[in-house]
Specification:
Length: about 120
């Protein structure tokens, strides 16, 4: 059973930084990719960033140059370093992993940026 757990959310002022972590467990033999999404109440979940097992990373235009995704294969953990945070980055951030043809989501971690 694959489980995904996010951590690292919190409250910061605009211009500040946070680092989110996403730890996955239950991987055995399939390749996998991991990604971050965010969602505000009443809105659709939107893509933030993704990283493939070979390290290839992609970003939403709204976070390019400010957010950096990285991974630690030994720990099955993906990080999202968020710098120069803006109030519009306030959302619940979710981690997703695609593994063996299935998709798994974490419970989310709240990020709040005040102006």
């Amino acid at each position: 059973l694959v489980q995904v757990v996010e951590s690292g959310g919190g409250s910061v002022q605009a211009g500040g930084s946070l680092r989110l972590s996403c730890a996955a467990s239950g991987y055995t033999y399939c390749r996998y990719d991991m990604s971050w999404y965010r969602q505000a109440p009443g809105k659709e979940r939107e893509f933030v960033s993704a990283i493939e097992s070979d390290g290839k990373a992609t970003y939403a235009d709204s976070v390019k140059g400010r957010f950096t995704i990285s991974q630690d294969h030994a720990k099955n953990t993906v990080y999202l370093q968020m710098n120069s945070l803006k109030p519009e980055d306030t959302d619940m951030y979710f981690c997703k992993t695609n593994y063996c043809g299935l998709t798994y989501w974490g419970q989310g971690t709240q990020v709040t940026v005040s102006s």
